[in-house]
Amino acid sequence: MIDFHNVTAFQQQTRVLDGFSLHIGAGEKVAILGPNGAGKSTLLKLITRELYPLDREGSHLKLFGSQNVNLWDLRSRLGFVSQDLQDDYTPHTPALDVVTSGFFGAIGAHGHLQASDAQRDQARALLASVEMAGHESTMFQRLSTGQKRRLLLARALVHQPRALILDEPANGLDMGASLGMLNLLRRFCGPEHAMIITTHHLDEIIPEIERVVLLAKGQIVADGPKAEVLTSARLSELYQIDLRVSEQDGWYRCWHA
Q1: Residue 244's closest CA among 230, 234, 252, 256?
Q2: Is the dihedral of CA 89, 177, 32, 100 positive or negative?
Q3: How far apart, in whole angstroms, are the C-alpha atoms of residue 69 and residue 114?
Q4: Among 16, 51, 54, 248, which one is most buried in terms of CB atoms within 10 A?
Q5: pLDDT digit string (tens) for 181-194?
Q6: How many whole angstroms separate alpha carbon 149 and alpha carbon 189?
Q7: All domains in the chain, ordered by first residue
Q8: From the CB of residue 242, how many other CB atoms can be counted at a distance below 10 Å?
Q9: Distance from the first to the final alpha carbon of the chain
């Protein structure tokens, strides 16, 4: 599904990834974990084509087997939720229009982009699925942070994508909203659906996540099954602090030793 090979990428004048390689197959559930500045957001921007890698010999970034991906086709295959999208969203957009805007890859409602009756019905069903029924007319700016995040999840699901990509999905949420969001994500973890979560919090890694990739300074320092990667030794080295890790019922937590 996603194939980085020897990829180099810049954010403005900063080289964030250099000779980076990563393969994620169809249907995989992967968490990408690392401290701030590790390259997590850059990685996602490369996947969603907000950012393009340096064009050089012996390097490629393939999505669904191709280096040349039509953006409209990509939007129908990948659903994306991020803090940046939430921050950029047009504040006076009613909740139902936030969801239908996903059909057009738009941010906000625009007069020339009119959803059909079938699309609006689908959007209402998605609002219900993320526990937002009854908020159709509520303006985006009047929703809580947790409600906004759930609304963007519904928007990401309009095309029934093959993969969900979530950049720190519980960032900024209180405990109740965080648990609610994570439980919603668990509903969309069928065997045919891939999920990629970037985070620096172990408690955002839902039990259905099977593989964890650790990033530091734009490089992969560990990649493998969750139980093998999420260890006290590896995370202590990653965050340069003495940590202890425990697991219960598929959920992981850590604390300062």
Answers
A1: 256
A2: negative
A3: 26
A4: 16
A5: 999 999 888 888 89
A6: 18
A7: 2-256 (3.40.50.300)
A8: 10
A9: 38
